[in-house]
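queue> pop job 88
queue> type: inverse folding (structure -> sequence)
queue> payload:
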C-alpha cells in the first residue's frame, strides 16, 4: 500500500466522521473507541512489589480495532494522536504510541478544543510531543483507584454482600449523603412566628419594640403585638435609597454545567454529560453539515480565548446595543486547583443561535445547547441594576416595622439568562413605594405567620456536585460516574430529585468510617487530590505518592479483615406471593433500582418488576397506570395493557383536568421542589400549585 494518507487517531466514531468531512483527501481518521489498553478486570493488575507498575492488557473486544489501526498506521506517511485534550486523552495517546512504536517525544500529539473545520486544520499544523506528566497523573489515579477498589471491595463482598464496591470518591460521596441524613434525623424543629404589616402600597416585617428585637414564639405573642399596633400612629424614618448591581455568572465549567442542567432541565449528571458529548463531537446542521457546536466539555476553567471574546462581544452589540456591552471584557477567576489547559464550555460559533439550530437538534440537545449558549452570552454582558429602598416604619408605641425592596431598573445580562438556585430565593422584584422621612402611614392590616426551623435539605445531584467541587473531592469528569455508581450499588436512592441513603449505604459507610477512616475523610481525600494534581505539573513523582498511601493502607486492610464481623442485612419482605412457589417475595436492589425476588433462591429463581400503581387512569384506554423504571434508571409511567395500549409518560399523570382547557395534567416540581400540576396542552400549559404526597 502506497504511503499517501496521514493517519489521525481520535476516540469516538462520531468525532472521526466529523473530522473526516473537514480534512478530506490526504487524511485517514480512525477511532480507538476509548481506551485500547487497561488494567485487567480479573486481577488487581498492579505490581505492588515492583514500584506499583501497572500490568496493561488489550481490552477485550478491542482486538479488531487495534488490528485496523496498526494496518492504517503502517501505510500512513505520518500518524497523529488526536484523542481528547485531557488527562485520559493523553493516556490513550500514550498507549497508542507504545503499541504503534511511536516515540512520544516526537511531535505526534494533536490537540483541539472544539470540533470545527478551522480549529481542526489549525491543530494539525501544530503537533507536539506527548505530555508525560499528564500520563503519569492518569496512571497514578488509575492505580490508586484500582488499589482501593480491588482491596476493599472483596472485603465488602465477604462481610456484607456480593457486588459492592468502595472508592476514593464514591465512598466520600456516599458518606456525605449518609451524614446529611443523620443531621436531618437529629434535627429538632423549633416553632417561631413572624408578623407582617400592610401599609398603603407596601408590606413590612415586624422587628420589635423599643430597640429590642422581637422573639415571637406563639400566636399569643403575636396577638399581643397586633392588638397594640392596630391603633398606633406610624411614621417613616431612616429612608435609604441605593443601587445594587448584580453581575453575571461565569461561563460554564463541567461541574456547574451539571448543576445548572439539574436545576433548570431536570437532567441527571450522566445525561448532561452524554448530551454535551454529542454537541461537542458534532451534530448535522441543516444546510451546513456536521459541526461540533460547543467547545470541549471537560474543564474546570472559566478562561475564554480572545477570539471567542471578540465574537461574543460583537454578538451582544448587534443584538442588544452598547448599553449591554461592558467597556472591557468580563474576566472570571478560575479556582486555584483548576486545570487551565481548556477554555470554559462555550458555543463554537455565536452565529449558531439556539432557535436556528432547533430543527437540527433533538429536544434535549436543544435545551442543553440553549443553556450553554445563553450562559456564555450573558457572561459577557453588563450587570443588572436594581434600585433599592429600605426604611423603618416606627409606631408611637415603640414598635417598629422594617421595609426593604428592590426594583430592576436595567436588565443587563438578565435579559438573556439568570442562574438557577437550589434552596435560596432571591428578593422579589417589585414596584418601590414612595417613602420619605417623617411621612405618616396608616396600618391597614397585620397578620401573623407560623414557621418552623427546617433541617438541612437532602442533597440533589446539583448540590452534591457543588459540595464535592467546593471540598476538592474528585474532578469534574468523575462526578457523573460517581453518582451513577453509588446509585447502581444501592447505596443511595432518588426521591423527589433528592438523594437519600439506603440501609445498605449506611451499613457500608459505618464500616468504612470505622476501619478505613482515611478513605471517607474529606480532608484526607482532598489532600490526596492535590497530590495527584501536582503529579500533573511534574511537582511530585507518582510512584512516591502511591507508595506513601499504600504502606499505611495495607496495614489497615489486615486489621479490618481480621476485625470486621459478617453483617447480615435482612431483605424486606413484601405482601406479594411468588407466582412460582407461593413464598412471600422480598425486595432486592439491582442496577435499575428495586425489584421483587423469591426468597427461596436458588431453588426458585422467580423475579418480577416492582410496580407501583397511581390513582390516575390511563388517558387512552382507562386501564391502570404503573410507575416503571427504564434501563437508564429513569422513572416513567405506563399502562397495564401494554403492548395493546402503548401510553407512556415521563411525568406522573393526575386525575385533575386542566381548569382552563380540560386537558389532562401531570405532576411537576420546580427547582425548589414545590409541586404543581401542569397542563400537557402545548397551547395552554396551565400551572396549578398543589401539595404533593410525601411518598410520591
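queue> result:
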Amino acid at each position: 500500500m502506497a504511503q499517501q494518507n496521514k493517519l489521525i487517531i481520535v476516540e469516538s466514531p462520531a468525532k472521526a466522521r466529523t473530522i473526516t468531512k473537514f480534512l478530506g483527501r490526504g487524511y485517514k481518521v480512525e477511532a480507538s473507541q476509548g481506551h485500547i489498553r487497561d488494567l485487567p478486570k480479573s486481577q488487581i493488575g498492579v505490581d505492588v512489589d515492583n514500584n506499583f507498575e501497572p500490568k496493561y492488557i488489550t481490552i477485550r473486544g478491542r482486538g479488531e480495532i487495534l488490528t485496523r489501526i496498526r494496518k492504517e498506521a503502517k501505510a500512513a506517511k505520518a500518524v497523529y494522536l488526536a484523542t481528547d485534550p485531557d488527562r485520559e486523552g493523553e493516556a490513550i495517546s500514550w498507549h497508542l504510541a507504545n503499541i504503534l512504536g511511536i516515540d512520544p517525544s516526537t511531535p505526534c500529539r494533536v490537540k483541539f478544543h472544539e470540533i470545527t473545520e478551522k480549529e481542526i486544520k489549525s491543530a494539525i499544523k501544530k503537533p507536539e510531543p506527548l505530555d508525560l506528566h499528564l500520563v503519569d497523573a492518569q496512571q497514578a489515579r488509575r492505580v490508586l483507584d484500582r488499589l482501593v477498589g480491588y482491596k476493599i471491595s472483596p472485603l465488602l463482598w465477604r462481610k456484607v454482600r456480593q457486588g459492592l464496591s468502595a472508592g476514593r470518591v464514591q465512598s466520600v460521596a456516599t458518606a456525605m449523603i449518609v451524614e446529611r441524613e443523620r443531621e436531618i434525623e437529629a434535627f429538632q424543629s423549633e416553632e417561631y412566628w413572624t408578623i407582617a404589616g400592610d401599609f398603603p402600597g407596601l408590606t413590612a416585617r415586624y422587628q420589635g419594640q423599643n430597640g429590642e428585637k422581637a422573639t415571637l414564639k406563639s400566636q399569643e405573642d403575636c396577638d399581643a403585638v397586633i392588638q397594640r399596633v392596630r391603633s398606633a400612629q406610624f411614621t417613616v424614618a431612616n429612608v435609604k435609597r441605593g443601587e445594587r448591581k448584580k453581575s453575571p455568572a461565569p461561563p460554564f465549567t463541567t461541574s456547574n454545567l451539571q448543576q445548572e442542567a439539574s436545576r433548570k432541565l431536570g437532567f441527571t449528571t450522566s445525561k448532561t454529560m452524554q448530551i454535551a458529548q454529542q454537541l461537542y463531537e458534532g451534530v448535522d446542521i441543516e444546510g451546513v453539515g456536521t459541526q461540533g457546536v460547543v467547545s470541549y466539555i471537560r474543564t474546570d476553567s472559566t478562561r475564554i480565548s480572545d477570539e471567542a471574546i471578540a465574537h461574543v462581544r460583537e454578538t451582544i452589540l448587534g443584538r442588544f446595543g452598547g448599553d449591554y456591552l461592558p467597556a472591557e471584557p468580563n474576566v472570571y477567576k478560575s479556582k486555584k486547583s483548576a486545570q487551565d489547559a481548556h477554555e470554559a464550555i462555550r458555543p463554537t460559533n455565536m452565529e449558531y443561535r439556539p432557535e436556528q439550530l432547533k430543527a437540527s437538534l433533538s429536544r434535549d440537545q436543544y435545551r442543553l445547547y440553549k443553556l450553554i449558549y445563553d450562559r456564555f452570552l450573558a457572561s459577557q454582558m453588563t450587570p443588572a441594576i436594581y434600585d433599592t429602598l429600605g426604611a423603618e416604619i416606627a409606631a408611637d408605641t415603640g414598635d417598629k416595622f422594617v421595609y426593604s425592596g428592590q426594583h430592576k431598573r436595567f436588565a443587563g445580562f438578565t435579559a438573556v439568562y439568570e442562574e438557577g438556585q437550589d434552596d435560596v430565593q432571591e428578593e422579589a422584584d417589585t414596584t418601590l413605594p414612595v417613602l420619605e422621612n417623617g411621612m405618616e402611614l396608616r396600618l391597614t392590616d397585620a397578620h401573623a405567620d407560623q414557621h418552623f426551623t427546617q433541617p438541612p435539605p437532602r442533597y440533589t445531584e446539583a448540590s452534591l456536585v457543588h459540595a464535592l467541587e467546593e471540598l476538592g473531592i474528585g474532578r469534574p469528569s468523575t462526578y457523573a460516574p460517581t453518582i451513577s455508581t453509588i446509585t447502581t450499588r444501592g447505596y443511595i436512592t432518588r426521591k423527589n430529585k433528592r438523594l437519600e441513603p439506603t440501609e445498605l449505604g449506611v451499613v457500608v459507610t459505618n464500616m468504612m468510617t470505622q476501619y478505613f477512616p482515611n478513605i471517607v475523610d474529606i480532608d484526607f481525600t482532598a489532600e490526596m487530590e492535590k497530590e495527584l494534581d501536582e503529579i500533573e505539573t511534574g511537582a511530585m513523582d507518582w510512584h512516591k505518592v502511591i507508595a506513601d498511601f499504600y504502606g499505611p493502607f495495607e496495614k489497615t486492610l489486615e486489621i479490618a479483615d481480621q476485625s470486621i464481623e459478617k453483617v447480615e442485612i435482612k431483605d424486606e419482605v413484601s405482601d406479594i406471593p411468588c407466582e412460582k412457589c407461593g413464598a412471600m417475595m422480598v425486595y432486592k436492589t439491582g442496577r435499575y433500582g428495586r425489584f421483587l425476588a423469591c426468597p427461596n433462591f436458588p431453588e426458585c429463581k422467580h423475579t418480577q418488576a416492582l410496580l407501583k400503581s397511581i390513582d390516575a387512569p390511563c388517558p387512552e384506554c382507562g386501564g391502570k397506570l404503573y410507575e416503571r423504571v427504564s434501563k437508564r434508571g429513569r422513572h416513567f409511567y405506563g399502562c397495564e395493557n401494554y403492548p395493546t395500549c402503548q401510553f407512556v409518560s415521563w411525568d406522573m399523570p393526575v386525575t385533575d383536568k386542566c381548569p382552563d382547557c380540560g386537558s389532562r395534567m401531570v405532576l411537576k416540581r420546580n427547582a425548589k421542589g414545590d409541586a404543581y400540576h401542569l397542563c400537557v396542552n402545548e397551547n395552554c400549559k396551565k400551572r396549578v400549585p398543589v401539595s404533593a404526597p410525601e411518598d410520591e
